[in-house]
Specification:
Layout (H helix, E strand, L loop, with lengths): L1 H6 L2 E6 L2 E6 L1 H29 L5 H16 L8 H8 L10 H33 L3 H4 L9 H9 L5 H32 L5 H10 L11 E4 L10 H20 L7 E2 L3 E2 L11 E4 L6 E4 L5 E6 L2 E6 L1 E2 L2 E2 L2 H13 L19 H11 L3 H11 L4 E4 L12 H11 L12 E5 L5 E5 L6 H19 L19 E2 L6 H19 L1 E8 L4 H4 L6 H17 L5 E6 L8 E5 L3 H12 L4 H23 L5 H14 L4 H8 L4 E5 L21 E2 L8 E6 L6 E8 L7 H18 L8
């Protein structure tokens, strides 16, 4: 077989005369090219490491300082104030390279110049650090607000959700915690902040994500949609050829540190640490806790199609395969008629079921032989690719099409996604794509950054032929993708089936309602003189009250990437001000001017909460870390126990967009993704993801559970629509026909 010859560098046979080696010239050539490619990567990393080490200096700036020192010397001006002569006296005399006075003088000037250069670097670094640590600019145009302690800020956030008796009880617990327990716990957090890069993120990753024992599918993983208003090609393999090529181009830029940081409000760079584990990363199950395994490189992807697993090489030697070559390889998989091996078809259901069961079966049946080799090929892949046999695409004339598309991305058939991989690239039969992303390694804006680059490169750089195929000619002599071989015993197959049933019950219970809101977008919201995010969040409060007749604790994720290795903080969107506005709206007895005033107060409170969260002054992550310390110390805190057990019945998130300016949205208004979504956090709650997708439209993804008699995703979605329209009417914002 062709792939067997590609896999070995030499063969040998034992003869009476000894061992006869038969070297494969082609294989050795590929090994040589791979080595060259690896050394190129090492040299690039060394170069980047040096440049990082002297930032914000550079070799050019060092040369400028040296030339300035030399020039002043020739002009008989001693800018060193005698330091050059002092250094010269300390140099050894009479031998080696220091024999002549001219050499000693030049060397002394070089040493002095290097010292001045390094001192300048340290000065500018400290100055830059102070500037980036200043977050007052977020508040300046809106005015500073008084800052409560985290505990009393928490009480303010729940006061309107509790009765008087319950609030008084919580106030007593909070006061006791603040006076007795908190000071001791806080000392440990301060100590950690001195020692660790970030005092929150490692514990957040471990205790919120990796120690979770429930299925990743629906409960943790989230999905991302393709461009929904334009179509590049209907050819499934061709679309994958361009997209996979673009993804590896992005990975190459990432390895070479050529990706510019995202700027907060266009002013301050945000930490890019989470991008490091985007590729070559797999979540490995454990009985008590999972582990994220990240490799420095991977030269293949794992592919699933019709119950079979394949290993597809991305390189020929050191050369990245062109899109047309990748298209040919994916088409070979699509054309492969071989059936699945026993137990292979639903194998990935293990990653969709309980983590403990997966850890046990992995240890028992995948630790050696064929199964270990095949599992390694999946877990060591750059990412996972799923070739689906069904078609999905958003049809504006058929609203249900977007929800069906979202359901397919969220869980699929429960066994055609590898939920442990950092992300699964999903390709439907009609060329439409999407992602299913594991959450522990990074948050949604990180994968969104990759997705914007990939979709922009696919649409504007790579392109397709008139027949919908990738440009160029394929190389037919490439070895075909390799079928992974399994030996799955009946006992293991029984566990696979059990995991599948658990996952299927979970998937069948998810109600997902996705819709495009057409009457207006952020353009007209700004005429209300408020932020689009605050506008939507207040509309969600109005919609929830109309849906359930009460308010609930509401979670909105906010980035904290202005801090090194920062991830997220919670914005508690249900505030006293927003509930006052909602109650006034529902009563229907207030003047429009009064309602406008209540809305603006609610919007200002929400915007200020977002600024506090972004600048590290939020509530929840701090209380979470205090809780972790209390568990380490064996300290019981009724206050922290209640805070950390409160259910988030409305969990919300805005999908970031236009992080990369690869094209002009005004020139290409239909090149819009629909964002993505996630499952409900509480069994009797809603999950709401939304994308304010430009000036004139928004997309919403609403999830709930059929098993809850209190929730209905479509009903809540309709309430969201109406709430947006009603708030717009307050400001007489003209709307397009809905």
């Amino acid at each position: 077989m062709a792939e067997a010859h590609q896999a070995v560098a030499f063969q040998f046979t034992v003869t009476p005369e000894g061992v006869d080696f038969r070297l494969s010239r082609e294989a050795l050539k590929h090994i040589y090219l791979s080595g060259i490619n690896s050394w190129k990567k090492r040299l690039i990393r060394i170069k980047n490491g040096i440049l990082r080490g002297v930032y914000p200096g550079s070799p050019t700036s060092w040369l400028v300082v040296v030339m300035t020192t030399l020039g002043s010397s020739y002009c008989n001006v001693d800018i060193s104030m005698g330091l050059v002569c002092f250094i010269q006296r300390w140099l050894p005399e009479g031998c080696g390279p220091y024999r002549t006075p001219q050499t000693r003088t030049l060397l002394s000037m070089a040493v002095f110049s290097t010292g001045v250069w390094m001192a300048g670097i340290l000065f500018f670094r400290q100055t830059l650090k102070l500037l980036l640590s200043y977050h007052g600019w977020l508040f300046e145009m809106h005015g500073q607000t008084s800052r409560f302690t985290k505990v009393w800020a928490y009480l303010e956030s729940v006061q309107h959700l509790l009765g008087d008796e319950e609030y008084n009880r919580m106030e007593t617990l909070a006061k006791e915690f603040q006076e007795k327990t908190a000071p001791r716990l806080q000392k440990y957090l301060v100590l950690k902040s001195w020692w660790a890069t970030n005092y929150v993120s490692d514990w957040w990753e471990e205790y919120v994500y990796l120690r979770g024992r429930t299925p990743l599918m629906v409960n943790s993983n989230y999905y991302v949609m393709d461009l929904v208003l334009v179509k590049n090609t209907d050819v499934q393999a061709a679309r994958l050829g361009n997209i996979v090529h673009a993804m590896i181009m992005y990975r190459r830029k990432l390895d070479r540190e050529e990706i510019k940081p995202v700027m907060a409000l266009g002013i301050v760079p945000m930490c890019s640490y989470q991008m490091e584990r985007m590729f070559n990363t797999t979540r490995i199950p454990g009985k008590d806790t999972d582990v994220l395994r990240h490799l420095t490189d991977s030269r293949h992807v794992a592919v699933y199609h019709k119950g079979r697993f394949f290993k597809l090489w991305l390189y020929e030697g050191s050369r990245l395969l062109e899109p047309r070559d990748l298209e040919m390889q994916f088409q070979r998989i699509l054309d492969d008629p071989s059936p699945p091996q026993p137990g292979e078809e639903r194998l990935a259901a293990l990653t969709a079921g309980g983590r403990v069961e997966w850890a046990r079966v992995r240890q028992a049946f995948f630790g050696s032989g064929k199964n270990k080799a095949a599992l390694d090929a999946i877990e060591r892949a750059a990412f996972f690719v799923a070739l689906d046999e069904e078609s999905h695409r958003y049809d504006p004339e058929d609203e249900a099409s977007l929800s069906l598309y979202g359901k397919a991305l969220l869980h699929g058939s429960c066994y055609n996604r590898w939920f442990d991989k950092s992300f699964t690239l999903i390709a439907f039969k009609n060329g439409q794509l999407g992602l299913n992303t594991e959450h522990a390694w990074a948050d949604a804006p990180i994968i969104g950054h990759l997705w914007e680059f990939v979709l922009g490169t696919d649409s504007f750089d790579l392109g397709y032929s008139e027949t919908g195929h990738c440009l160029g000619k394929p190389n037919p002599v490439l070895a075909p993708p390799q079928r992974l071989q399994w030996d799955i015993p009946e006992q293991c197959q029984a566990v696979i089936e059990s995991s599948y049933q658990v996952a299927k019950a979970l998937a069948d219970d998810v109600e997902l309602y996705c819709f495009q809101f057409l009457p207006f977008g952020k353009g007209l919201i700004k005429k209300c003189r408020t932020s689009p995010d605050a506008f939507v969040q207040i509309a969600l409060q109005l919609a929830y009250f109309r849906d359930r007749g009460k308010f609930c604790l509401t979670y909105e994720a906010s980035m904290t990437r202005m801090f090194r290795e920062g991830r997220t903080e919670t914005v508690r969107s249900c505030t006293c001000e927003s509930t006052a506005f909602v109650q006034a709206m529902v009563q229907g007895r207030h003047l429009k001017a009064d309602l406008q005033d209540l809305f603006r107060k609610a919007a200002e409170k929400h915007q200020n909460a977002c600024r506090l969260a972004m600048t590290g002054a939020g509530i929840d992550r701090h209380l979470f870390c205090l809780y972790v310390v209390s568990k380490f110390l064996g300290v019981s805190s009724p206050f922290l126990a209640e805070v950390l057990s409160e259910p988030w019945r409305l969990s919300t998130s805005q999908t970031a967009q236009f992080q990369i300016r690869m094209f002009d949205p005004n020139k290409y208004p239909n090149h819009l993704g629909a964002g993505g979504g996630f499952g409900p956090v509480a069994n009797d709650g809603y999950g709401v993801s939304y994308m304010i997708a430009g000036e004139n439209t928004m997309f919403f993804h609403v999830s709930s559970k059929f098993s809850s008699s209190e929730t209905n995703a479509q009903r809540f979605g309709n309430h969201i629509r109406q709430a947006l329209l009603d708030i717009a009417d307050l400001f007489q914002v003209p709307k397009a026909d809905s």
